[in-house]
Amino acid sequence: MTHDLFRQDAYLRECSAHITAVTDAGIVLDRTVFYPLGGGQAGDSGVLVLEGGTAITVADTRKGKDADGNPTSAIVHVPAPGQEDRVAQLTAGTAVTARIDWERRHRMMRLHTTSHLLCHVVPQLVNGCSITPDYARLDFAMTDPLDKEQLTAAIATLAAAAHPLTVASISDEELDANPALVKSMSVQPPRGTGRIRTIRIGGEGDAPLVDLQPCGGTHVANTSEIGDIVVTKIEKKSATTRRVVLGFAL
Ligand SMILES: [Zn+2]
After folding, report:
1. Sequence-distant (≥ 6) Cβ neighbours of residue 55 within 8 angstroms
2. Ligand 1 centroid to residue 7 C-alpha, Å
């Protein structure tokens, strides 16, 4: 069984779990709903609640690292400062309820899904991306100017069309045979397990395909859930890069 429950169901707000390790970096569980920083998306925050009711605040979530500094499959819950005494009492096997800050995560799910819509509206390679609870920014490798109002309107139309999102997977070989599926130059597809997770927007039955690309992040189930997200800024980051910033309408 896989331990990263958020990849099957991004709507899980909590799960029961057991501590498998407590390290200098943080707390590792046998399974979790916490998304670790990666693919441009920020790590989750939240709480780990012990059976007695004691809560450990989790400030961030990161991938584990091996001795050489390479990421491992472990997901490390980083405790907020000032909880050293509580963390010191934790041992492997301790039961916890792992609960994310859902409001914060859902904002990232909405922004992240919108970034996929933006890939449809601006069909250029992405060479940088960051998704936070407050804004998302995508850097497109392009020289043509972009119009803020035009992009906002195009995103709103796609969101209102209520396209469902489908999580699926393809093999490394299928991805190698379809290199155009990879729209990001900065984020590598989540390879390594033989299957690569894909996110498809639209394309069910006869419906038009809006976007299909490898992605390990968390998304809403339908574009109708995106709500009021607008392009807040367009910057000419360099001669060959246009930066688009997404945010929540005031
Ligand atoms: Zn994604």
Report:
1. 47, 48, 49
2. 11
